[in-house]
Amino acid sequence: MSPQAEWQGVLDAETKWWSSMSCERLIAELHDVRAYVVEVDSKRYQVEVELMEHTNAYVHVQVGVDDGSFPGSIVPLTKSFICQKSATSAVR
Fold first, then answer.
1. H-helix or E-strand containing 54?
2. Residue with the larger pLDDT of the pair 87 and 8
3. Helix, strand, or coil here: 37?
4. Residue 82 vs residues 47, 69, 77: alpha-carbon distances, Å
5. Which residue among 17, 45, 75, 91 is buried most deeply as judged by most CB within 10 Å?
């Protein structure tokens, strides 16, 4: 199995977790880039989560995963998602 194939499961799980949050919580949690390590099947993976855009209508979040090895960590596997703000919070 290629490293990217291993990373995909971690990326999917982390993206699912972050995308389950409300826009307000994402904004609060991601005032700076969030970097942390997760362990899956005795392997460690680096995760970075960043708020890419914060508009009146939505927030755009990017999640990246790699195993910290060189040169693999130069180009992490990434996925992004958009969280639409509710009509009442978009007015604020």
1. strand 43-54
2. 8
3. strand
4. 18, 29, 18
5. 45
Q: Count CA atoms closer than 13 A to 18's CA, side-chain side.
A: 28
Q: Rounded CA gap, 3 and 22, in Å?
A: 31
Buried b (16+ CB within 10 A) or exposed e, 19-38: eebebeebbeebeeeeeeee
What is the identity of the amino acid at 28? Answer: A
Alpha helices in 1-92 (DSSP H): 3-19, 23-29, 87-91
Q: Is the pTM here over 0.85, yes or no? A: yes
Tens digits of residue pLDDT in 28-72: 999 999 999 999 999 999 999 999 999 999 999 999 999 988 887
Q: Taking the alpha carbons of 63, 65, 68, 69 in that order, is the dihedral positive or negative? A: negative
